[in-house]
Sequence to fold (301 residues):
Amino acid sequence: MKLQQKFKDARQLESCRFTKEIICEKKKAGKNREMAQYFWTKWRKEKAQRQKDIQLHEIERCNLKDVPEQDVLGSGVFGYCKKMLYRGHVVAVKFFNKTSLDAVKKEASMIHTFDNEGLPYIFGINVKSKPYFIVMECYGIDGRSITLAEAAKTSMFTSERQWVDVLLACAKAISQIHTKGYIHCDLKGDNIVINKVDKGFYPIVIDFGKMQKACEAKIKKLSTVEQEKYNKYHKHIAPEVAQGTHPPTKASDIYAFGLVISLICFYHKIENLRLIAVTCINGTPERRHTIDQIIDQLQSL
Fold:
C-alpha cells in the first residue's frame, strides 16, 4: 500500500509539474503574440506615415522668391502666411514658428487628402530645416486676400442668389471634409477666403491646423476662466465643446458654419438664410442639421 501511495504521489507531482510547464509556455506564447502584434501595428503605422511623406513634394527653399509687395496674408500663434513666387506661380507659404515636425506633416497630409474646388491645393512642404513651411495655391481677388468675413461687410455680393451660391460651395467643401472622416474644428468667416476666377467668385475653406479625425476627437476639459475666454474670443466653437461635455464633432462644425451664415444675415438681412442658420446653431448637437441637409436646403432656394 505504501509503495502504491508513493507511485500515486509521484504521478501527481509529475502531473502538477507538467501542468505548470504548460501554463508557463502559454504565458510565453501570449507574450510573444502581444509582442508580434505590437511590432506589426508599429510597422503598419510607420509604413503609412512613409507613404504619406512620399506623396508630399519637398520644395527647396531656394526656389521660393519674394514678391515686390511683400504681402503677409495672415498671422497667428502658428506663425505667418506670406505671398511668394514659386517657379513663376504666386503661392501662399505658411511658415511655422514653434509647430512640431509631426504637426506640420499632419496638416500638410490632411490638405493633400482632399480634392475639392472649395479646399486648398498644396504644392509641397519643406521640413528639412526651420522654419518649416507649407506651399499652397494663393487665393484672392486682384492680388488681395479677401475673407468671407470681410466680404460680408461690403457690397461685393448684393443678391440672395450670390450669397446662396457662395454658401453652397462652402457646404460642399465641408461635406467632403466630413465624408472623409474629418472635422475642421475652426470654421469661421476669417478661415474662408474668396477667390476670383475670370468673372466668377469661389470660396475656399482654409486653415487645417486644428483639423482632427472624427474617430480620434476627445473631450477637452476647460477651467471656468478658459471657458469664459472661449466664449469671448472663440465664439465659433460650439458650446458643448467649450463646456467640455462633448468632443468636437461634425455637429460642432455645423454650429460654426451656422455662425458664418448668421454673419451674412446680420449685414444683408436674407430671411431664407437666417432660417437655415437657426437649424445649425441649435443648442442640442443632435438636433442640428447635417451638412447634406444644409446642401439640400441651399439648393432648394
Remarks:
- The first helix runs from residue 2 to 55.
